[in-house]
Design goal:
Blueprint: E1 2-11, E2 14-24, E3 29-33, H1 40-47, E4 55-60, E5 63-64, H2 69-73, E6 76-79, H3 91-101, H4 109-120, H5 135-147, E7 153-157, H6 165-178, E8 183-188, H7 191-197, E9 200-205, E10 208-213, H8 215-222, E11 226-233, H9 236-243, E12 249-254, E13 262-269, H10 276-285, E14 290-296, H11 300-307, H12 329-334
Parallel strand pairs: 3-8, 3-9, 6-7, 7-8
Antiparallel strand pairs: 1-2, 1-4, 4-5, 9-10, 11-13, 11-14, 12-13
Amino acid sequence: MIEVTNLTKRYGDQTAVDHLSFRVEKGQIYGFLGPNGAGKSTTMNIITGYLAATEGTVVIDGKDIQKEPEEAKKKVGYLPEIPPLYMDMTVEEYLLFASELKKVPKKDRKEQMQKAMELTGIADKGRRLIKNLSKGYRQRVGLAQAILGDPEVLILDEPSVGLDPKQIIEMRELIRKLGENHTVILSSHILSEVSAICDHIMIIAHGKLVASDSPEGLQKLMEGSRELELTVKGAYESIRTILEKIDGVETAEQESSGEKGCAKLKLTCREDEDVREAVFYALAEAKLPILEMTLRRRSLEDIFLELTEPEEPEKEGTGEQSEPDMVSENEKEGEVQ
């Protein structure tokens, strides 16, 4: 559906996107995950044709966004982080204006507007001024304009930013519903949001794609060595001596002191080695009762932090690797994709 190849965006000496390549398949929800300044918004702006790339190509359903911009943009609905709303318009006036910009056939405009408002839960807000709506409803209005024209792809930049917990849950449900009929790409730095909604996660850091897989696949990929936490009744030295003889156990370190007469240990095991059964029998034979045993699996948060660690500081004069804000205020507020 979307093919991004060798995408690069530079602002002078600063590189916001660094030779990024990935493919988006039809009918799935993709999460674009990364810390602030990683290059997510810049990448989305290039995919939608809002910014030009320094190098590389973006092809949407066979249409190059630079060579055939009008045809490519028809296939994309875009909700920027700051929705491009006109506060003194009513919801219906704004959506009519957006449908005209998108060249929706005149005979279809009312029907598409009504469908978009019903889908986003704002059907009863049509005659309200946008400036009188809450933040959550303004986000819904922005999403409604993205749906107009029935695009095959929806690109949502931080769709939950600034919403309260109830509104965030409602937005997640809405995105899931949209994913039934559209390919969706959403960016976020909120891990729980991405893991709850998305079929596939792409992690970006310092303008580069550092991981791309399903949430489950990422965890499996990054598991590496396993850690087993134990609380055993007995002396630490005796327990360690027994544990280190077990095949698959690499280290047995003492943790903070546990209950009186007990030792708390952390075992590091070889990759793909499950030593729990061997540990149980070895300690049972030595009459050292196990009071607690926990296999620690790495969370998505652990993976995210490892993959997005700050790079070493660059040499003086080269500048920081961050995502600069070089788009004018007129572009931010005035253009509806």
